[in-house]
Amino acid sequence: MDFVSIRIITGDVARLVAFYERATGARAAWATEDFAEITTAGATLAIAGTRTVPLFAPGSARPADNHSVITEFLVDDVDHVHQNLTGFVTDFVSGPVTMPWGNRSLLLRDPDGNLVNFFTPVTPAAVEKFAHRRPAQPLTREP
């Protein structure tokens, strides 16, 4: 088995895709107006509209109703990401702060209120743990 993606159901696919494109620096691949994917080296973030829910099971998912999942992105420089997103993100939850397990983390909410964590390993143990992964490239500040 291989974990390949997580899907966020939203009432506004274009808005959420635009947010994650800006936040990650990656471009989405659109399949339909109701479904797009942002692919990174480690996994894919799928973003789907509410019209896709009945294809699985009617009423099985609701947009902007997540209270238990944090989507996480490994980045080269979390402080740079924070600087880049300041003025764009309206809900920073915490950070950047160094966690007891050795990652420097930036926790924020996307436009639907979902928690998103950008992190950079900073202690030797954390750096070693993620040495096999190639983090996303640092974001450049847009004019």
Give the SSE layout.
Layout: E1 5-10, H1 13-24, E2 29-32, E3 35-39, E4 44-49, H2 53-56, E5 70-74, H3 78-85, E6 92-98, E7 103-109, E8 115-121, H4 124-129
Parallel strand pairs: 1-4, 5-8
Antiparallel strand pairs: 2-3, 3-4, 6-7, 7-8
Write up this protein:
This protein has two domains: 56 residues, Signal recognition particle alu RNA binding heterodimer, srp9/1 (2-Layer Sandwich), CATH 3.30.720; 69 residues, 2,3-Dihydroxybiphenyl 1,2-Dioxygenase, domain 1, CATH 3.10.180.10. Helices cover 21% and strands 33% of the residues. It contains four helices and eight strands; from the N terminus they run E-H-E-E-E-H-E-H-E-E-E-H. The radius of gyration is 15 Å and the shape is globular.
CATH architecture descriptor name of the largest domain? Roll
Order of helices and strands: EHEEEHEHEEEH
Shape: globular
Number of helices: 4
Q: Which characteristics define this entry?
A:
disordered C terminus, 4-stranded mixed β-sheet, 143 residues, alpha/beta, 2,3-Dihydroxybiphenyl 1,2-Dioxygenase, domain 1, 2 domains, 4 helices, Signal recognition particle alu RNA binding heterodimer, srp9/1
